[in-house]
Design a protein that fits this description.
2 copies of one chain form a homodimer. Chain A is α/β, with parallel strands linked by helices. Among the domains of chain A are: about 10-200, ANL, N-terminal domain (Rossmann fold), CATH 3.40.50.12780; about 435-544, 2-Layer Sandwich (GMP Synthetase, Chain A, domain 3), CATH 3.30.300. In chain A, about 30% of the residues lie in helices and about 25% in strands. Chain A contains 17 helices and 24 strands. In chain A, the strands form 5 sheets. An 8-stranded mixed beta sheet of chain A has the order 2-1-11-10-12-13-14-15, with helices on both faces. A 7-stranded mixed beta sheet of chain A has the order 7-6-5-3-4-8-9. The longest helix of chain A has 17 residues, at about 40-60. At the A-B interface, helix 1, strand 9 and helix 7 of A face helix 1, strand 9, helix 7 and helix 12 of B.
Chain lengths: ~550, ~550
């Protein structure tokens, strides 16, 4: 009675096969790392990927072997995206912006057998390769003419390697829950942890993220991922685009507004990146009085998107913003802010407010809020709670971790604090470890910081909770003022009281010259706590 | 290394849970069989479905038991759509238009334990129930006040049954390849055969058919399936709509243009049915000078859609036509005619020609053409071949058949002959058993018939191939002329030569008063062959 339908394995090779079969000539325009802008298509990408799979097997790659890839967004990278899993191996994306020690750690931890590296990253390769214990071959993503000079022996030229093979190769098959790719989380504490995407999770994720209420990607779109393929599964765009037969533009390593604008004007209809990229681009466009002639939608995620960016894209350039939230651990899509009918009924101004949330989840993703004791909280758009996620492409275990990172009901703790409204629209309000718990109520450190930096003389502000005998925790604020200026404490608290409730106003303000930052430029609350500890800082109520 | 993502079972209960969680208040407007138009939503459908699951278990329904459902498209039917599989049982849709003997055959073949029947179909139930060996209970889909009078004992009232339960029920779980629904093919030869959809095939099918290049269904749509839920998996709309959180209109049993127009005007944005329905509606709209105020897209399938219908919807009413092809055996979606970039570049007239094809497949569906020896033929838009299908929601075995109905490479023979063009757009040209094979070339009987009935005095025409000593087969044409008129053979062949190649022109024309038809109103080629056999008909070249 069961299982009378045909078997169909949800493996990523099916995605590329579909693209090459039904959308073979769809253009992929790519700025190569060597410099020139080149064109290819899904049919050619598939042929190159098959050649690569064949070559990798000759380099003794066996099923489930890991291959580390440190590369920018190019058409060549897409060949790897399919050639590596097609050979049975696992595509381990490496972020070249990590410290060498971190790179060495994750390459050794994943036991990568081969490294494939863009030619401009040769210096990093030279630095780390001697410390990578399991790596047997290094492949440079270049043609023979552009192979970099290096003191490393036996570097393999990618284009030569691939040119020596034919494409007569059957993709390696296997169960759909086999590993397909690995991405390590940067991890603010402890060592980076490896998230292992399966073939199945990648295919289901691509299917759901393409849907009309999510990215709404079709074969008539041309999508440019500015977000690097090594960030959080490349936001899955390397899978979603060929699944729907979309055309692509790959911007290479040039991230200047000029370079991105040049690529956007090659008929791009959808693009995706973090807010910083778009702030720079919007300024550039306004300064140069330029228009976006083909762009229709921009996906903004990675961190909260300022209202001004949303408004400028939509009002000044006629480009619809899709504010999104995700995590490396979620493949990465958690939510996208498209308009449900309830939102379509609102005024334009109210719609913009909705767009400041990160939206609602696709099919297969489920979110919930709880208090510290795991009691479910209501979705009223106000109540803050710990944010938990469940889904078909959400992590269950990290690589080489025995324990699951989900609770008994299968929920993954995102580490975020959020609100969810009646219509399912979610807003991150803080990280769990940064939220300030005052007398049973939760105060968002981010909200306090945003309120404070609105003051014209405040350059940076960090809110943290300190122990209080009566309220458990109370907020205090660490502030950096503009050089050579002074602001009175009361002026700041008065200013803030326009934006936050009275009982949330920080009890103390500490003026400093500098606030410590993490490697990725965020405020280091851990560093800040250490400084305060060293000074034996205590809440004023205790000091008195 | 493998399987580190969370488990997520592709079961249809996940679809309804998602709809109730993120689109709870989306309206479902339904014309009840009792008469009134009522409103419900996904949250309420889920509650009722859970109550039904609970009640079914009390009626001794165990996992994989079959429940036969004979019902029109109502919100209540949607409750069954989830309540039955939610209880672990299998939803066996029954077509009330079948002959009683056929109904009895398929109910006994599937071994249905319970029958659930709309109140207006009580006469059919009374007729067949005594012959249904495995049925232990019959449930009438009505409230107490509307229970029909019947001599059948122990009829259960659906609304009473459900009202007696609470919704505190966990959906029955299990492997995603477990059976979820059954639909029997009508079968022109032999007994009907049962196609068994799995939970997985239904979920994957709903996901792919919602995608932007297919139905493009979103939470802002309101979809009305005119095609009955008992036809070919209800074109999957009962799954696709809640998966994306769409609103629905369920038209009930009233299929008159007046009744359908009334329901379309309740904010419907997408609708779906066979061409006949739309021909009647378009005539009605023109006659009454009516407009379609909310409808944006119409999905037309089930049989080839006349160009005039496509043009009238698009030009007269501003409604985009999505010509589609599918089969009960394919869950049913095979292809939809949306525009790829290659088509967008064409003139408006050329686009209409493309829309006469049934379009291209979604991800997970693969089509190919072969000759009689299984050699793959090219996709050039001209070469006719046997059409084969592979996919995640395509049949592998029929119910209680030991042999697979796929070849060694997993291909299912659709029984159709088709062409596929360079861009993957497919056109059915004939049924395999009807195509005329003349000297190695294939002549479409349908093309000949269409060419002939263009003649103003020809009412109906049927082309069949008869044995020929030199060419294997040659076409002859059986013709019914308008009453009281006569047409010369040469006039017909001259007329046809404007539409088909010379060598395809039928060698003989036989004038008859009437052509035999099947139960569903199609020309019965089998019946026609029998008549000719009885007359010892032979090709003119043999007779001479």
């Amino acid at each position: 009675m069961d299982n009378l339908m045909q078997p169909f394995s949800l493996r990523v090779s099916e995605i590329l096969d579909h693209a090459a079969r039904y959308h073979p000539w769809r253009k992929i325009i790519s700025r190569n790392v060597e410099g020139p802008i080149v064109e290819t298509n899904w049919s050619s990408v598939r042929i190159k990927a098959k050649k690569l799979s064949k070559a990798l097997q000759k380099l003794d790659i066996k099923k489930s072997d890991r291959i580390g890839v440190m590369a920018w967004n190019t058409a060549r990278h897409l060949e790897l995206w399919y050639g590596i899993p097609g050979s049975g191996a696992i595509n381990h994306t490496l972020n070249p912006r990590l410290f060498s020690k971190q790179l060495t750690y994750i390459i050794n931890h994943a036991e990568d057998k081969i490294l494939m590296v863009d030619l401009d990253l040769i210096k990093i390769l030279e630095e780390i390769l001697p410390t990578c214990k399991t790596v047997t071959h290094a492949i440079i993503l270049a043609d023979k003419a552009n192979m970099p000079r290096s003191n490393l022996p036996n570097l393999i030229c990618y284009e030569e390697l691939v040119a020596n093979e034919d494409s007569d190769f059957e993709w390696v098959t296997g169960h759909e829950t086999e590993a397909c790719g690995i991405c390590y989380t940067s991890g603010t504490t402890g060592n980076p942890k490896g998230v292992v995407y399966t073939h199945r999770s990648n295919v289901l994720h691509a299917l759901t993220s393409a849907s009309p209420d999510m990215i709404n990607l079709s074969s008539t779109d041309r999508i440019m991922p500015v977000v690097p393929l090594f960030h959080a599964n490349g936001w899955s765009i390397g899978y979603t685009a060929p699944l729907v037969g979309a055309s692509m533009v790959m911007p290479g390593k040039e991230m200047t507004p000029e370079a991105l604008y040049e690529m956007l004007e090659k008929g791009v209809t959808v693009t995706a990146a973090v807010p910083t990229i778009w702030l720079l681009l919007l300024n550039y466009l306004k300064e140069k009085k330029l228009k976006l002639s083909s762009l229709k939608r921009v996906i903004i995620g990675g961190s909260s998107c300022p209202k001004a960016v949303i408004e400028s894209f939509q009002k000044d350039f006629g480009v619809k913003v899709l504010h999104a939230w995700g995590m490396t651990e979620m493949s990465p899509l958690g939510t996208i802010c498209s308009f449900k009918p309830e939102v379509l009924e609102l005024s334009e101004e109210e719609k913009i407010s909705v767009q400041e949330t990160t939206g609602h989840p696709p099919f297969t993703v489920e979110l919930k809020l709880t208090d510290d004791n795991g009691n479910k909280l209501k979705n009223d758009g106000k109540t803050q709670g710990k944010l938990w996620a469940r889904g078909a492409a959400v992590v269950q275990k990290y690589l080489k971790f025995d324990e699951k990172v989900v609770d008994n009901d299968g929920w993954f703790d995102t580490g975020d604090v959020a609100t969810i409204d009646e219509n399912g629209y979610m807003s991150i309000t803080d990280r769990s470890k940064d939220i300030i718990k005052s007398g049973g109520e939760w105060i968002s450190s981010i909200e306090l910081e945003n309120a404070a930096v609105g003051h014209p003389k405040i350059v940076e502000a960090a809110a943290i909770g300190v122990f209080h005998p009566k309220w458990d925790e109370r907020p205090i604020l660490v502030v950096v003022c503009e050089k050579g200026t002074r602001v009175k404490e009361k002026e700041i608290t008065d200013f803030m009281s326009d934006y936050v409730a009275k009982w949330q106003i920080p009890d103390d303000i500490i003026f400093v010259e500098e606030i410590p930052h993490t490697a990725t430029g965020k405020i280091s609350k851990i560093g800040l706590r250490k400084i305060l500890e060293n000074q034996n800082y205590q809440h004023p109520d205790i000091q008195q």
